[in-house]
Amino acid sequence: MSLAALTVHEAAKLLAGGEISSVELTTAALERIEQLDARVKAYVTLTPELALEQARAADAARAGGEGAGQPLLGVPVALKDVLVTEGVRTTCSSRILESYVPVYDGTAVARLRSRGAVFLGKTNCDEFAMGSSTENSGFFPTHNPWDLDTVPGGSSGGSAAAVAADECIYSLGTDTGGSIRQPAALCGVTGIKPTYGRISRFGLVAFASSLDQIGPFTKDAEDAALVLNALCGRDVMDSTSVGRPVPDFAAALTGDLAGVRVGVPSEYFAAGLEPGVEAAVREALKVLERAGAVVDECSLPSTDYALDTYYIIAPAEASANLARFDGVRYGFSKEASDVWGEYNATREAGFGAEVKRRIILGTYVLSAGYYDAYYLKAQKVRTLIKQEFDAAFERFDVLVAPTSPSVAFRIGEKTNDPLAMYLSDVLTIPVNMAGLPGMSIPCGLSDGLPVGLQIIGRAFDEETVLRVGHCYQQQTDFHRQRPAL
Amino acid sequence: MATAPSTQRTASGTDYELVVGLEVHVELRTRSKMFCSCSADWFGKPPNSQVCPVCMALPGSLPAINRQAIEYAIMVGLALHADVENLPNGKPTRFDRKNYTYPDLPKGYQITQMDLPVNLGGWLEIALPDGGTKRVGVTRAHQEEDTAKLIHRVDEMGVAHSLVDFNRAGVPLLEIVSEPDMRSSEEAGAYLRTLRGILLYLGVTDARMEEGSFRCDANCSIRPVGSSEFGRKVEVKNMNSFRSVERALRYEFERQREALARGEVIPQETRGWDEDRGVTVSQRSKEYAHDYRYFPEPDLPPLFLAPDWIEAIKQRLPELPAAKKARYARDYGLADEPARLIADDPSLADFFESALFTGYGDAKQVAAWMLGDLTRLLKAHNTELGSSLVTPSKLVDLLKLIDGGQISGKIAKDVLDEMFVSGKSPEDVVREKGLLQISDEGDLERACAAAIAANLQSVEDYRAGKERALQFLVGQVMRETRGRANPGKVNDILKKQLGG
Hints:
Strand order of the largest sheet of chain A: 1-3-2-4-6-5-10-11-9-7-8
CATH architecture of one domain in chain A: Alpha-Beta Complex
CATH class of one domain in chain A: Alpha Beta
Number of domains of chain B: 3
Largest interface: A-B, 43 and 29 residues
Radius of gyration of chain A: 21 Å
Helix content of chain B: 25-40%
CATH superfamily of one domain in chain A: Amidase signature (AS) domain
Oligomer: heterodimer
Strand content of chain A: 5-15%
Number of strands of chain A: 11
Shape of chain B: elongated
Largest sheet of chain A: 11 strands, mixed
Helix content of chain A: 25-40%
CATH topology of one domain in chain A: Amidase signature (AS) enzymes
Structural class of chain A: alpha/beta
Number of helices of chain B: 15
Shape of chain A: globular
Number of strands of chain B: 14
Radius of gyration of chain B: 30 Å
Structural class of chain B: alpha+beta
Strand content of chain B: 15-25%
Largest sheet of chain B: 9 strands, mixed
Distance between the termini of chain A: 13 Å
Distance between the termini of chain B: 48 Å
């Protein structure tokens, strides 16, 4: 077994005990990438020199007595390519940024860097995080390590596939409508989107500002807790980040579920859910019950409206957020006879079809005469969705449901049907609309492909979400299963 | 100076009046920009030397609100009697995105305020030419950010380039919108001067129109006198001084009046003022107006202005022009006009109050010299009071020389001229130029006797009852003494010597 198959907590233990070095661990991950990534295509940009330099620095720091209480020191990580990295090309998997090298680190990246992380490279995603399969990448699709003919999900498909294929120890993704949880489900790894405001968005290239959140992909819930410990907390550079105290998430992993009330929203088991997915999730609920949880049905009637509402609010915000890509800065630019021609030519050639579709959609719903009917109404529905969750959390500590209605689908299967593609996020979007923490953990296979179990918590109660996920992983070994590559 | 009347009769016999509302943009002199920590002091700095990922809108960057800018906006609101505590429905203040594409707008949208500005409603009082006053309503004042600056150049190959300097991008702007309450170009000018004075007192801006830190667009229309309807609004832009605002509005009044007289309909449009030609030119009609697609800025949570904070700011507000003017009249007996002129201009008021702080008691005299000869010198030398070499205490020293009879008022004017140029004290100027008034009785008597001896005809005329002959003799003595004699004393001595 490659060292790259280790979890963060396993690697941290071996590094602390001097049994392995960060250079060895990093080299193992780089070798794994070398072996597999031509087929998986998880990475857009690799930074092996930087990684080895950071690994040597980590080893030196550890030799100098550092390392206690620093589980990320010297551990290799992959970063979704919407997270800006100083001196390392950041493309958002878009042609329009294909040569863009940022001058600063985003806050999440800086936090990892300051804790001694080793940066392996930048992972592929749907262009500007818009998509559910990573097929919208402006460069190439990423393949699901469980079946290379299927998609890894998206938009953070590269980050999910990299963890699933042991091409890194953990990775960062972003989740606007399910872009961490859905690929985590499809690739059989653990992925958590924390509460909106938990992790600074400074340095996350914005898709939909009121929905975007950064979060980790890991090999188990314990690792997720360790990475969140490093990432969470108020940042003055992001006014939407929240100043609540950050607990030690690892301390929440008690291993038991005595008295935890688990709600099962019936709307998440509606038509369109694959039977194999439903079966795996129902089985998982029994595991939780046996571990001491009290499981009961509940209802979130506005669930049906979440997808429609999302496709008004997210494109509206995106239409403004992407206005800055005009060919004046960031490298990519197309010549024309005047500045307006240059804008049009640059955006025509630089953006892919899905990005253009959403810019047009967002521009439309914000335009004079339509704002009230679409955007304002969508915001009201969003409030309703939030209120329904609030009401459910008066009865329950967490809600548990499938993450995605299906397992990984075949590459190309939905690319000509945007609506079918959008439905892939129908079970994850409501959580973003309400700003809640949500996690996906592997809960079995259906037709040989992973099924994800979604655990949704109260705002700022990642602890209970992690506790439930961790306890489930104590009872099962789905999270240890790896694709045969 | 001739000014156009605010109403005029057309050929068809209708009297029209001008209706004006003003939109003023002021750059706030905060230390840092509106949403990042770059310096806001951009004017004259090397291009793109005061920029960061936030104000250049680099991908991933986010805005963070400048607290000082909000505090300044609240100060302005309080000074304009805006009810900051009572925003509509008790809601907080909020930022919005205004979407449009232009190379000077790096994000592709401007962060501004739409529905919930920092302050809503208020008024300020302007002085009217007839000596009365008028309240002009302020609709709102909202916080936004300035754009980058475009520089257009032709290179040595003859190719035209547009260059972008982002130093100004993100500098805090406060937009102050008035009600359409003004009825003449003079009222518009008075509003702008009064507003500028208030802003300068608050110290929130340097309000220099020529540097663009105080900009004004005018919305104007005309209507028959007595009508309460508004005509179709014409927006006039590109005016870079108070004078050009007044000229442009006078021009618009005439233009619109003549158009109506010809039976034309005035289109709603934006027009630019051409300073050189003295005309406004149509820029774009509102039919092609932008759809700015405003929506709440998701990167900035709504702001709740704590009542304690507003109260604390209120306590710190400086004395404003209206209160100052009243105090000058009450405590120093200044007349309305000088009191207003001094109170409206912070640099004049500072000078005036510093002069009186020396203990000198004749405030009216200080005011008269400031508004008279000192102002004349400042204009002639194109100097600002703040950089004048004549300090308040030097002016007071000059006035004391007059009061003490050492120099005449006429000599004092020459002394002030010299002080203004050289920065010397009045005592030094008087001594170096030998301008001390002749106070020695014997010297004066000798000068008078000499004048009598040299002008016997005038002596006869005087004795024959011609009073003017005595004035002539006084003039002769003054000339001989180069003005250093006290005319009153000369008068007395001559009379005595002539046996009158």
